[in-house]
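We were asked to recover a plausible sequence for a given structure. The inputs and outputs are reproduced exactly as logged, with field labels preserved.

PROBLEM: sequence recovery
POSITIONS: 230
GIVEN STRUCTURE:
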């Protein structure tokens, strides 16, 4: 068993000192980096809810602010997809160079504009991202990068979020790799309706478990001893 890491540890990334919350369950084989949407950050209740479900499923999480508080004051930064994607790439480099997370497969979870940033970052030539999940996202804002995303991608949209469903359907058609789209009944744009966020968390957990791999303890259950044929 690897080093036990206290959940909810605050970490600082980059020269600007962007802050994040790192949680690593025992035996984790993957980590999901959260790309928050416009006007949101590492304390987002909805993303923290999803992160907690991933942690219970044996997946490490990093909820990170892609912008500093000063940068958020300029609203153009909040909608600058390429700036957000660049910060996500920087965060990914940190994950790969941090001894506690360097061995983990990496996934992205993006909401709203953060979903577009996640897809742009995942489309980088050497991204090596294992999976992407979008919650009520605007993947269409990723533009031509959609056609270069190689990571298996799950788009989750609320059934009551009509305009965003159409935008996701168009983006879905442009994705060339493995992909799925889930429309959650009775859910609006932010999944505030009872039970809908639980559906998002379950879908995300299943997707990431599929492509990041199950926790090491869970994988032991699938090891079979072959009979001795001598």
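RECOVERED SEQUENCE:
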């Amino acid at each position: 068993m690897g080093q036990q890491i206290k959940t909810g540890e605050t970490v600082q990334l980059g020269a600007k000192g962007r802050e994040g919350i790192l949680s690593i369950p025992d035996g984790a084989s993957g980590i999901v980096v959260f790309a928050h949407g416009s006007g949101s950050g590492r304390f987002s209740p909805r993303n923290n809810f999803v992160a907690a479900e991933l942690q219970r499923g044996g997946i490490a999480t990093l909820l990170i602010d892609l912008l500093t508080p000063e940068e958020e004051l300029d609203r153009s930064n909040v909608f600058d997809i390429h700036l957000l994607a660049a910060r996500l790439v920087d965060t990914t480099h940190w994950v790969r160079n941090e001894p506690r997370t360097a061995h983990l497969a990496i996934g992205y979870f993006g909401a709203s504009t953060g979903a577009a940033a996640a897809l742009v970052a995942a489309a980088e030539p050497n991204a090596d991202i294992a999976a992407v999940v979008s919650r009520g996202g605007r993947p269409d804002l990723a533009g031509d990068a959609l056609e270069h995303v190689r990571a298996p991608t799950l788009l989750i949209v609320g059934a009551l979020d009509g305009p965003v469903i159409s935008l996701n359907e168009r983006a879905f058609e442009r994705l060339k790799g493995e992909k799925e789209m889930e429309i959650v009944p009775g859910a609006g744009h932010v999944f505030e309706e009872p039970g809908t966020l639980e559906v998002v968390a379950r879908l995300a957990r299943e997707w990431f478990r599929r492509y990041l791999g199950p926790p090491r303890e869970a994988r032991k259950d699938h090891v079979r001893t072959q009979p001795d044929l001598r």
